[in-house]
Amino acid sequence: MKTILAQFDTDVLPSSFDQVVAVDSSVEQLFSYGAVTPDNVTGLVHGLIFTRGPADLKHSAIFIGGSDVAAGEALLRKVSKTFFGPMRVSVMMDSNGCNTTSAAAIACARKHLNLVGCRAIVLGATGSVGLRAAELLALEKAHVTLVSRTLDRAESACITIRTKVADAQVTAAAASQPVEFEELCQNATLIVAAGAAGVCFLESGALHRIQGLKLAIDLNAVPPVGIADIGVMDKAVEKHGVICYGALGVGGLKMKVHKKAIAALFESNDRVLETRTIYDMALQVAGIVTD
Questions:
Q1: What is the pLDDT of residue 222?
Q2: Is the pLDDT of residue 146 over 90?
Q3: Radius of gyration for the alpha carbons in the chain, expressed in angstroms and rounded
Q4: Peptide bond into 54 cis (omega under 30)
Q5: Is the pLDDT of residue 221 over 70?
Q6: Helix (H) or strand (E) holding 92
Q7: In this structure, are residues 124 and 102 in contact, taking their beta carbons and an 8 Å threshold?
Q8: Overall pTM > 0.90
Q9: Which residue, 83, 86, 154, 268, is most buried by CB atoms nearer than 10 A?
Q10: In 10 A of CB 204, how many CB atoms?
């Protein structure tokens, strides 16, 4: 029986990136749908769960994507409510690459640092990737400062993380200029830059000026990058005594995790792959032993 992956994209045009990864993950049939919403998804789900018997439903799965993470989360909730009893298939949500990218980034950090008690700064922390990176750092018991351009948004993001991570050590901060971002980063052990494309948080030379910094990860591949001292291809490259990862340096692990997650969808018909489960996969792929 052939494996079928139904791509439910909240954008009008389904992501070609996610389509390529699905094909490269050996999915045998890919059904791509655009402009999928909670209001029109029920029929698509029923088409998947009523055409194969319960024993064969593990050969069908759903991938939820698109550029709007909130829309993807709403779609996941609706899809989950549509299932009943054994009539369900496995689902992965990775809108805008939010889960695979953040998981890969923090797994890279784990290769070099003990994150327990680590002072971590997430720049662009209220975006889709930054928020999840901050959540995973809090899960690893780091002390995390979430930096946004407005304090209200940063504080709201902290509240969100506290609802998900017990005893999360998270603090909100606001900055809008490179000199302000640099000042907030002083004495940080780890910096993760996860801002929007074209936003430079730390200008050239900043890594040399930040005291105590051991690791910096920039997840923006579109120039200008988020940390000017880091190249997009950098992968565990030491600069000014700081281990650096650029977007494509993290991207190799991200792609491996994405493909592993797609394959895992077809191991059973009841898996839900989100931030935590995808992070666990990232740690496995990176060869990091967990307790």
A1: 87
A2: yes
A3: 19
A4: no
A5: yes
A6: strand 90-93
A7: no
A8: yes
A9: 154
A10: 11
Pick the closest to residue 163 from 188, 126, 138, 200 (CA basis).
138
- Fold equal for 4-97+255-285 and 101-250: yes
**Total residue length of the chain:** 291
141-176 per-residue burial string, b: 16 or more CB within 10 A, e: under 16: bbbbbbbbeeeebbbebbebbeeebeebbbebbbbe
- What kind and span of H or E run contains 60? strand 60-65
Q: Within its chain, how far is the Cα of 50 from the centroid?
A: 32
The answer, yes or no, to whether residue 289 has pLDDT greater than 80, is no
Domain ranges for the chain, please list them: 4-97+255-285, 101-250
pLDDT digits (tens, 9 = 90+) for 126-135: 999 999 999 9
Structure tokens at 71: 């829309």
Place of tokens 């992070």: 279
| Closest C-alpha to 27, from 2, 62, 53, 64 | 2
* Fold of the domain spanning 4-97+255-285: Rossmann fold (3.40.50)
pLDDT, one tens digit per residue, over 232-254 is: 999 999 998 999 999 999 999 99
- Nearest residue to 93 (alpha-carbon basis) of 254, 261, 251: 261
